[in-house]
Amino acid sequence: MTTTEPSKTASRSLSWRVVDIVVASVVAVACAVIFIAWIPLSSAPSTALTPLLPGLQGILNGPWLIAGPLAGLIIRKPGAALYAEFVAAALELLILPAYGASVLLSGVVQGLGAEIVFAVLLYRSYGPVVALLAGAGAGVAETFLDVPFYYAGANAAFWVVYGVTTTVSGAIVGLVCWPLVNAIARTGVLDRFASGRAARRAV
Predict the structure, then answer these.
(1) How many independent structural domains does the chain possess?
(2) CA separation (Å) from 174 to 76, 114, 127?
(3) Which domain holds residue 27?
(4) pLDDT tens by residue, the chain, 203 residues
(5) Theoretical Cys-Cys bridge with 63: which of 38, 72, 159, 203, CB 3.0 to 4.6 Å?
(6) Following DSSP, what letter does each residue of 152-183 receive, concatenated?
(7) Has residue 101 been placed in a domain?
């Protein structure tokens, strides 16, 4: 399979349907569960990594970046990555209000980071490389929010280490989204989406 997958129909509609909203919302709910589960699971590793090299804990940020790339790869329409990441963050905040409204800001920033990658490609090219780049984009965007917000006063070395590890973590998660989308699509549940039809043709 090639690393990009151009749309088969140049005139395809990029407007949202009800089914797009429903599926993007389902993706957001599933990702919110991942977000919430990852909080306690990542706590001990983060504590262990931080003394080794300040900023290294960014390698654990990937699971919080999954909603944008995953929804973008499935829905393949403008706003999908941003919508799913924001809704997932809103659900996380609803269940864990102690984290405050900064969770919503993270959702917007992460979603935009992935969304920009899909937008640059005009929502026409998809594949493992695009999935990787979308995850990396979310990681880059999150770095520019996290460091000044949560690590105010951090030096340049911290910026670099945290930025690189967060970006790598996002790229890995984005890349994982590609076979995940194909596996879901091959069950037939995404047949009303370009992602589902493409996966079925590739079988």
Answers:
(1) 1
(2) 15, 9, 10
(3) 18-44+55-202
(4) 444 444 443 457 899 999 999 999 999 999 999 999 999 999 999 999 989 999 999 999 999 999 999 999 999 999 999 999 999 999 999 999 988 889 999 999 999 999 999 999 999 999 999 999 999 999 999 999 999 999 999 999 999 999 999 999 999 999 999 999 999 998 888 999 988 887 767 65
(5) 38
(6) TT--HHHHHHHHHHHHHHHHHHHHHHHHHHHH
(7) yes
